[in-house]
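User: Fold this, then the next.

Assistant: Folding the first:
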Amino acid sequence: MKLKITTLLLLSCSYFVSAQEKKWTLRECVEYAIENNISIKQSELDLENAEIDKSDAFGSFLPSVNGSASHSWNVGLNQDITTGVLRTATTQFSSGRVSLGVDIFKGLQIQNRYRRAKLNILANQYQMDDMKDDISLAVANAYLQVLFSRENLAVQKAQYAVTEQDLKKTKELVESGVLPKGDLLEIEATAATQEQQIINAENTLRISKISLAQLLLLDDYENFDVADEDYMIPKSTIIGVTPDEIYQKALTFRGDVKLSQANIEIAEMDLKIAKGALMPSLTGFYGYDTRVSHQDRSVATGQFTETQIGTVQTTGDAVVSQSPVFGVAGPLPFVDQLWMNDGQSFGLSLNVPIFNGFAARNNVKRGQVNVKRNELLLKQTKLDLENTINQVWNDAQSAFKAYEASDKTLEARKLAYQYAKERFDVGLMNSFDFSQAQARLDNAQAELIRAKYDYIFKLKVLEYYFGIPVEEL
């Protein structure tokens, strides 16, 4: 028993540790966000509703079949079927009906509603795809922000480690009387500033992780972390592609463009449906009825009664009338009455719209306006897409140039810092000027990191509009 408990504890601990040590890749973050995002789940429900609407539209092609049944009690004054005398009694009756109706022609509204339902499914799918792309882009941005913050923190710590060594050397030189105490104070101030920068960088990293975790709808912020990967500047040929080529490619797959095109087709189908209401409609119907009585009935007994109604004048013979004798019997069997008392009705019904207060014609006009509105929305969507791609292309070009400039600046700052350090070590530069050289190096390193991830993100945005998945970083 103790062995089982120990095993369970070890398994639980190993699971907890593995959960804590899990580090998310960009692909995992994107897939998890798409799977758990509330807006996407709502869009999936909209897609399910569209599928149900399609089923409704298909059902309009099928005939409608309805059945009804009733049973009634009549209590009160009724005529006796044998004596003809009115008396208080209770009678019962049962009835049933089955009806069938089918739309033979309805101005092609049924067919057009079915086509509209299928178009609506496509529109919802395009909308959901567009939403997934936007969420993927947002996750990539947040993910790169975490990488930037983490790399910036690593640089800050590395810089502080160098400063600690300089501080140790400066203390020795001050104690030996080679350097004045002011130089030591200046180095200590630089170290304190870097400690503050490390704290700020740690806070920035934590906030960026929390932002990404919230985007993924995760609650365990403290144990959330991304994979330890060093992302370098990716090699991409997208920079050499013109904005117009990217725009033409984007038109073939962008969800927002396809959604706008689908909305035009839906509006055109709505217009056809509205026009169909101006046309005659032909409906076929069929009905089957039957009824059952539960009261006693009058039946002939086979006997007759004779009544003299006159005499023959010539012979004096009596003229006799015979009347059958009736008795009382119970109701016929239930099933027998169903077939004896049944009846059928069938036919066609033609409905011709003549005047309905301009409602049908106004619906046609509304449909025409809606078609024009959606055509304008498509033009606006394409225009916005073209403007966005041009802006993204310019941003990517500028970001790459900024990265190259930052890289050159950093190399120059490294050489300047190395030269200043050599002069400082031999006492040819005071601590203030040396601190300034180090600060300029720190700023150049931070700017290079910022420019690097800014370019990576803007490059991914440009590739995103070219159809390259965001998670392929």
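Now the next one, as you asked:
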Amino acid sequence: MAIIGNIIKGVINLRNSISPETDHIKNQKETLNFLLEKAKKTEFGNHFEFSKILNSVDPYKNFKSTIPYFDYDKIHNDWWHKLHEGVSNVTWPGNPDYFALSSGTTGKTSKRIPVTDDMIEAIKNAGIKQILAIENFDLPSDFFEKEIMMLGSSTELQENNDHLEGEISGISASRIPFWFRGFYKPGEEISKIDDWDERVQKIAENAKTWDIGALSGIPSWMELMMEKVIEYHKVDNIHDIWPNLKVYTTGGVAFGPYEKSFKRLTGKHVHVIDTYLASEGFIALQTRPETDAMQLLTDNGIFFEFIPFKPEYINQDGSLKADSPSISIEDVELDQDYVLIISTVSGAWRYSIGDTIQFTDVEKAEIRITGRTKFFLNTVGSQLSVNKMDAAMKELGNQFDMEVSEYTICAKRADDNEFYHFWYLGTSDTSLDSSEVAEALDKALKSANKNYEVARTKALKGVKVNLVKPDVFYNWNARNKKKGGQVKMERVMNVEKFGEWENFVQKH
């Protein structure tokens, strides 16, 4: 009898049984009030007169009419740069001990995003909520005694003046509470190894000594790790090494394109649970098995706003136009793409993280990530979002019995001076006829997106496909010293970046 597991499961059952249905609208009103109240004496709060906003009849209306939208560059140049000069109480009380390094998928220069004690506490609370939600997946009691493989970035944080820097997954793992360390793998020593390949080699060497029940990390790097373990031990699948593996918590990118290859690496069914942890905070998590949508964490230090994702509100570079209209959670609608705007306990205010989302259940505040504002391909009116591209990759996988785990696309003129969509697909089966794949891809996108279908009858001449090994994508990231951790491949490239990519592909 798994005594400890039964105790943990019993506590989870008790917590779930006494938890009332969440009122997300009330949560968000209280969160906005909390944020404004706590930050009203900061430089930012004084400048934008938070006290006056708090005392107004409609705080949210005054909040959004007073404070402009920020992206990283704007808030860093206007405010956060002072934190690196030793100034305190800039956009949040105090001065953060940590900064999350994030270059995202669009550049080589790292962003330095403040991570306050309040944000670390919020991330810890989100982790607890996730553990509580696991009860809904009807797992056996002994699952709660198994070990968890958390494959993030290195926990060996770098000192910079009076603070520490690292990716958010590394910061979170470095703050794991003492009582959890016995469950956490690959453990502190291996997690501190900065070199990805060396770290994965150590994981492979030690894999048989662990009883892993859950995996957590970005799909592309998780698959590479599993492949290494399987190869090292000369077995058929990961369940030959970890027979009790039952849960995989994914995040960072949509899991759809990886589903086929992930199943190939596992021998038994694994519950895939989606999470939404960004460098700016823990935003949402999946709470029930009957959907793959995630519930916004409306009571955990983040106030959410939503801007309808329409071409008239978005600049060519993916940034927001200053007069784009925003709404709060009480006014959102189903099946509408929104640009996500957040204000947080780390002192981000009306901040665009560059993601677009769609509500699948308004009452439950459940969402799916539909793409990136910078990865929205609207050349010649095609209006392709990442979720439409991901769906097309899944359809190609089924039609050709192929695994497409990575891809990138660029819209540009070809030698005939006509516009084409140029696709590179990462698949182990590069012997397929690329023209047949291109035809099927074009057909899938036409049926999924009427704007694309219209564009194909006008300015968009066609689709060109190149099939390359998935390793090419991983090596591209490694070239920029971005292997492992939170790193994601850019799905859409501009013409200049795409030229660099094509030169890289030719050499590899």
